[in-house]
Design brief:
By secondary structure, the chain is α/β, with parallel strands linked by helices. The chain is about 35% helix and about 25% strand. It is globular and about 50 Å long. The structure holds 5-O-phosphono-beta-D-ribofuranosylamine.
Length: about 200
């Protein structure tokens, strides 16, 4: 069984989608540990409810490298094969990225490379994009810049507000993330430069 570590900072609805998919046998692996830099994160609570080890790791007063080294140690102790960022609001240091080469993924609420960074749904809405969506990508040392594994488009409607659009994008995220994680855990992705070639696609 492949083992997944999930990093969260907040509500953890994507974590929940991964947990639910694993329970249904649709993830291609199991969630081995959930780590958060926020003590009261709902994501930690969701993990505990699901019987998954939930670890709080405080980042306050620590250099990024020291904090990241602690998280890497926790993930290694739980022998994770893949690290999933799910609303984890900290930038990873190069040392963290190198500790799990090609084995860290993130979900972003826009169609990258459009609208990287914070508040991507609002960025797309303010820009007047007619289509936005969700992206799962491998994590490199940049901000939302790694090779794209999977995307789902979501139309931006005339009556949308950033909030309404966010709700529909989140629904897409919950479909997309488990599917993308499964592709990775089953070893069906090969990276060629910036391109992720998915077997059978
Ligand atoms: C999601 O919109 C995700 O795309 C972004 O952060 C948000 C996390 O939401 N990276 P949740 O904690 O999974 O509910």
């Amino acid at each position: 069984m492949k083992r997944v570590g999930v990093l969260v900072s907040g509500r953890g609805s994507n974590l929940q989608a991964l947990v639910d998919a694993a329970r249904r046998g649709e993830l291609g692996g199991e969630i081995a540990v959930v780590v958060s830099n926020v003590e009261g994160a709902l994501g930690l609570e969701r993990a505990r409810k699901a019987g998954i080890p939930a670890v709080f790791c405080d980042h306050h007063g620590k250099k990024r490298e020291a904090f990241d080294a602690e998280i890497v140690e926790i993930l290694r102790a739980h022998r994770v094969d893949l690290v999933c960022l799910a609303g984890f609001m900290r930038l990873l240091s190069p040392a963290f990225v190198r500790a799990f080469p090609g084995r860290i993924v993130n979900i972003h609420p826009a169609l990258l490379p459009a609208f990287p960074g914070l508040d991507a749904q609002r960025q797309a809405w303010e820009h007047g994009a007619k289509v936005s969506g969700a992206t799962v990508h491998l994590v490199d040392e940049g901000l939302d810049s790694g090779p794209i594994v999977a995307q789902e488009a979501v139309p931006v409607l005339s009556g949308d507000t950033p909030e309404k659009l966010s709700v529909r994008i989140l629904e897409a995220e919950h479909r997309l993330y488990p599917k993308a994680v499964r592709l990775l855990l089953e070893g069906r992705c090969r990276v060629e430069g910036r391109r992720v070639i998915v077997e059978g696609e």
